[in-house]
Write a structure and sequence with these properties.
The structure holds 2 protein chains of 2 kinds. Chain A contains no helices and 11 strands. In chain A, strand 4 and strand 5 form a beta hairpin. Chain B is built from no helices and 12 strands. Chain B is mainly β. Classes of the chains: A mainly beta, B mainly beta.
């Protein structure tokens, strides 16, 4: 199956600092990538949809100035958590959608990033 | 709007036995896709199996099969010959053609395989 690489897998930072998470599709071009947040023992919560070359579409309740998304190329999307605070501690996971012509539009996920803000 | 329901928060199965994880869905869109993902404790979401609404046959991938009952709007995952490594969270998801292909996820089912 398609491979999505997410980095870093684990990050600890001080309150007030910014953290950047990268999501790369390694063997296919992804015009659309998704960013999710997952709390312990809960399902995935979609934060935003990232389209290459355009602004991200954020879900209701997600602060776009807090969670900056950049989709600069067909294989890379980044999520920056700005001025992180302890309540931002969570598991963040990205996914990339293979195009309709490939693999039934299946979303492939990165391994996730565990963010701990002290 | 589409909705995915997984009513089993937790399931237990003995190694080498088969287990069925339930998933029901609701949508008015005639064209949709159903997915199952596995999430082990490491956190990664692993794609397991896909079923399209127009597919005539139930999808199968190795030990995984999807019991697709369109009239009942159910898409249960069947894992045959369970292995200890199958212990994980399992999520059912659906995307419709009219929803920008953004999938909706169920709440998940925790499966524990014991020896």
């Amino acid at each position: 199956g398609a491979v999505v690489s997410q980095h870093p897998s684990w990050v600890i930072c001080k309150s007030g600092t910014s953290v950047k998470i990268e999501c790369r599709s390694l063997d296919f071009q992804a015009t659309t990538m998704f960013w999710y947040r997952q709390f312990p023992k809960q399902s995935l919560m979609l934060m935003a949809t990232s389209n290459e070359g355009s602004k991200a579409t954020y879900e209701q309740g997600v602060e776009k100035d807090k969670f900056l998304i950049n989709h600069a190329s067909l294989t890379l999307s980044t999520l920056t958590v700005t001025s992180a605070h302890p309540e931002d501690s969570s598991f963040y996971i990205c996914s990339a959608r293979a195009g309709l012509a490939r693999a039934k539009n299946i979303q492939y996920f990165g391994a996730g990033t565990r963010l701990s803000v002290l | 709007a589409q909705k995915i329901t997984q009513t089993q928060p937790g399931m237990f199965v003995q190694e080498k036995e088969a287990v069925t994880l339930d998933c029901t869905y609701d949508t008015s869109d005639p064209s949709y896709g159903l997915f199952w993902y596995k999430q082990p404790s490491s956190g990664e979401m692993i794609f397991l199996i896909y079923q399209g609404s127009y597919d005539q046959q139930n999808a199968t991938e190795g030990r995984y099969s999807l019991n697709f009952q369109k009239a009942r709007k159910s898409a249960n995952l069947v894992i045959s010959a369970s292995q200890l490594g199958d212990s994980a969270m399992y999520f059912c998801a659906m995307r419709v053609s009219g929803g920008s292909y953004i999938p909706t996820f169920g709440r998940g089912t925790s499966l524990i395989v014991h020896p």
